Amino acid sequence: MDIQNNNETALQEKLSFENFQNEVLKDYRIICESRETSLLGRKEVLTGKAKFGIFGDGKEVAQVAAAKFFMPGDFRAGYYRTRLLCLPQALLILIAFSQLYADPDVNNDPFSAGRQMNAHFSTKIVDESGEWLDIANIKNVSSDMAPTASQMLRALGLAFSSKIFRNVPELHEYKNLSTNGNEVCFCTIGDASTSEGHFWENHKCCRCATGTIGCFCMG
Ligand SMILES: Cc1ncc(C[n+]2csc(CCOP(=O)(O)OP(=O)(O)O)c2C)c(N)n1
Asked: Is residue 2 part of a domain?
């Protein structure tokens, strides 16, 4: 699915005052919508109408800033509080509440049609016949997993894949999978999860193995 675009053409133009003003207002709107969605969703859970909810209030600004650098071909390996990095703005409210009630209609929850835990996301990398999609030209989300810090391992694997695409000439023809390994993997994690063993193992591994990972601790 197409992910929040953040008006890339406007960003590439020389930033006039008017463009800057529009961009700030647009960002502020996204932040407010997301915050209100979190507050309303939490009420639904606390009053027993939804069984379980995960929200990202308090972490909106960092995500809106990071989203400006999230380009087609990049991957998000994130955790449940970072939905603004991967939800299209126009569908944010629909998807957030559809997930809250585990709506099985794929039009309402295009990430997993109500099968994943809410606030867990993923985009497709193959089509209905199992053929690769043009993932070098879409903004990708690797499937979120429940164990905290598991996103670190996905991020490492994805960044390592980019490194292989960069270093192995035979892979350069697969333009639909990688742009010579130049893509970035955006990893987000909560601060408590940074105490888990695999967070540190991952760090050691990153130093010797990987391509580019941007890691944000959101706690
Ligand atoms: C391996 C593992 N242990 C425990 C849990 C249960 N659990 C879910 S969220 C969470 C807290 C994570 O805190 P933090 O990383 O600071 O993220 P925050 O939600 O506070 O942003 C825990 C313990 C889990 N999902 N996975």
From this structure: no
pLDDT per residue as tens, the chain (219 positions):
445 555 556 556 678 899 999 999 999 999 999 999 999 999 999 999 999 999 999 999 999 999 999 999 999 999 999 999 888 888 999 999 999 999 999 999 999 999 999 999 999 999 999 999 999 999 999 999 999 999 999 999 999 999 999 999 999 999 999 999 999 999 999 999 999 998 888 877 876 666 666 666 766
Q: What is the domain range of residue 33?
A: 8-217
As for how many domains the chain has, the answer is 1
* Domain assignment of residue 15, yes or no: yes
Distance 80 CA to ligand 1 centre (A): 10
Residue 1, in any domain of the structure: no
First to last CA, the chain: 28
* Ligand 1 centroid to residue 54 C-alpha, Å: 11
- Say if ligand 1 is within 6 A of residue 219 CB: yes
What is the distance, to the nearest Å, from the Cα of residue 205 to the centroid of all Cα atoms in its chain?
Answer: 22
56 CA to middle of ligand 1, Å?
13
φ/ψ of residue 126, rounded to 5? -130, 155
Q: CA 52, CA 26: separation in Å to the nearest integer? A: 30
| Atom 8, ligand 1: residue with shortest CA distance | 148
The model carries a pTM of 0.88
Question: Which two structure tokens, joined as six digits, stand for 142?
Answer: 């690797």
Q: Domain with 27 in it: what CATH number? A: 3.40.50.970
